[in-house]
Amino acid sequence: QVQLVESGGGLVQAGGSLRLSCVASGRAFASNPMGWFRQAPGKEREFVAVVSGPDDRTSYVDSVKGRFTIARDDAKNTVYLQMNNLRPEDTAIYFCAANRRLYWSNAYRDTDDYNYWGRGTQVTVSS
C-alpha cells in the first residue's frame, strides 16, 4: 500500500520558518516529480512547488519564490519543503503528492497530474 505522510507543520509567527517533510512508503518515487500543494479554508487546492525525478529540476508558484525551497532525498524516499519568511497568507493545509508521470511535464501545477496524496499537515502563520 502506497502512503505519503507529511509532518513538520505547526504554528509560527510571521517571518518565521518551518520545514515540512513527506515520507513515501510502499514504492519508490525516484523517477516521479514530487509536488507540494496547499489549501486554505474556503479556497481551492493550489500548487506550491515541484521537484523533478532524475535532475532535481524545480518550479514554484510566484508567491513563494525566494522564500520556499523544495528538495528530495531519494535514498530516504523523502521530499522536503523549507519555508522561510512565512506570511499569514501562507496559512493552509500543506499536501505532498506524487506525480503520475515518470518525466517532467508542463501539467505539474494541475492536481489531476498527481495520483498519490498525503493527508496534509497544518501550517498556521500568525501576524
Specify the helix fraction band: under 10%
Number of DSSP strand runs: 11
Span between termini: 40 Å
Unreliable parts: none
**Proportion of β residues?**
over 45%
CA radius of gyration is 13 Å
Major sheet size, sense and barrel closure: 7 strands, mixed
- Overall geometric form: globular
Class from secondary-structure proportions: mainly beta
Pattern of helices and strands: EEEEEEEEEEE
Mean pLDDT, to the nearest integer, reads 95
Count of DSSP helices?
0
Describe this structure as you would to a colleague.
Helix content is 0%, strand content 49%. With 127 residues, it is mainly β. Strands 2, 4, 5, 6, 9, 10 and 11 form a seven-stranded mixed beta sheet that branches. A hairpin with a 4-residue loop joins strand 7 and strand 8 (78-83). It is globular, with a radius of gyration of 13 Å. The model has no long low-confidence stretch (mean pLDDT 95).
Briefly characterize the structure.
It is built from no helices and eleven strands.
Topology at a glance:
Elements: E1 3-7, E2 10-13, E3 18-25, E4 34-39, E5 46-51, E6 58-60, E7 68-73, E8 78-83, E9 92-99, E10 114-117, E11 121-126
Parallel strand pairs: 2-11
Antiparallel strand pairs: 1-3, 3-8, 4-5, 4-9, 5-6, 7-8, 9-10, 9-11
